[in-house]
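[INFO] parsing input record for DUF2147 domain-containing protein
[DEBUG] input buffer:
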Amino acid sequence: MKKLVLAAVVTLAGSTMALADPVLGVWKTQVDDGNYAHITMSKCGDAICGVISRTFNAEGEWKSDNIGKQLVWDMQAQGGGSYKNGKIWQPSKDKVYKSKMALSGNSLKVSGCIGPICRKQTWSRVQ
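[DEBUG] output buffer:
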């Protein structure tokens, strides 16, 4: 009986920690090519992924064809708000970059590189 209870506690603790990743939720990107988006970050297996959930332009919210498309994938939590080994898609250039992220409170620094060429943005948490 003690082994069963211990196994249940370990399983519950592991699943709670997996659900509690602080980067999960909705993030607002910086403006790129006149547009910005809300990205919903969630678990996808052992990694973090982000999907475009809303899109905006100078007039306000609009229904882009990119809604529902994956923007971030394969991002691995490293602890301490650091994530790496992921990929990120830049819709305005239709390019995929190697990516990493750094979380600090309600600010998420996202960078992506192809070789020596890197792009950076700071995203803000949507409350």
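[INFO] Residues 21 and 79 are 10 Å apart (CA to CA).
[INFO] shutting down worker
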